[in-house]
Amino acid sequence: QSALTQPASVSGSPGQSITISCTGTSSDVGSYNLVSWYQQHPGKAPKLMIYEGSKRPSGVSNRFSGSKSGNTASLTISGLQAEDEADYYCCSYAGSIVVFGGGTKLTVL
Amino acid sequence: QVQLQESGPGLVKPSQTLSLTCTVSGGSISSGSYYWSWIRQPAGKGLEWIGRIYTSGSTNYNPSLKSRVTISVDTSKNQFSLKLSSVTAADTAVYYCARERGSGRRFFDYWGQGTLVTVSS
Question: Who among A32, A46, A97 is closest to B47 (CB)?
């Protein structure tokens, strides 16, 4: 099972919106509405930001949203803030196993 | 509030077995529909799922590690454990334990802080 494909880096200015893509296959992203997204700041554990494709846990800003089309899931962050600068990982259920994306470094300019 | 805490040796010699334990507090490891997973992250690299266990004892492992991994659970101690055999330098990483929602939901909602394990002689 290969890792999901994410861009290595994205950047945006404060107030702008950015989108991070996560491409899998018909065996993972395409087959299940079970993509989750995690934010990780340096030296910290990952934090759940989106689950089941588009749902936000309590306490996560509504600036974060998720979607899916075919084998590709996306995370959109609107109204970028300095605190959003972090690494972001997508994750998909793949029929008894789990596969992560390679991660995307978000830089807020 | 559920909390997870990893513990174990920070240094393991090549060819030996890495052993880590995750202690769960703030709730019973046996309650609810949850799986208990191990995930690792080499320095500067991405996350890799290692495997999971349900409190019934059923397990699933990453196919790339399956031959070397054993995950077990001790419900009396509210702990689950990881053993990774025949380690090499490539197994050097921060190891996280995490709670995975079950019942068809499948996401990691609580994570430990992570523990660095270095494989070196």
Answer: A46
Report chain B residues touching chain A, CB-CB < 8 A. 37, 39, 45-49, 52, 60-64, 96, 100-101, 104-109, 111-114
pLDDT tens for B9-37 read: 999 999 999 999 999 999 999 988 899 99
What are the chain A neighbours of B47 within 8 Å (beta carbons)?
38, 46, 89, 91, 100, 103
pLDDT-derived band at A43 (thresholds 50, 70, 90) equals: very high
> What type of residue sits at position B59?
T
Q: How far apart are CA A76 and CA A62, in angstroms?
A: 10
Q: A12 by DSSP, 3-state: which? A: strand
Helix (H), strand (E), coil (C) string for chain B = CCEEEEECCCEECCCCCEEEEEEEECCCCCCCCEEEEEEEECCCCCCEEEEEECCCCCEEECCCCCCCEEEEEECCCCEEEEEECCCCHHHCEEEEEEEEECCCCCCEEEECCCEEEEECC
Q: pLDDT for B42-79, tens place per residue? A: 999 999 999 999 988 999 999 999 999 999 999 999 99
Cα separation of A40 and A58, whole Å? 18
Q: What is the pLDDT of residues B90-117, one digit of tens each?
A: 999 999 999 999 877 889 999 999 999 9
Kindly determine whether residue B106 and residue A93, on different chains, have CB atoms separated by under 8 Å: yes
Residue A19 Cα distances to A66, A103, B81, angstroms? 9, 13, 37
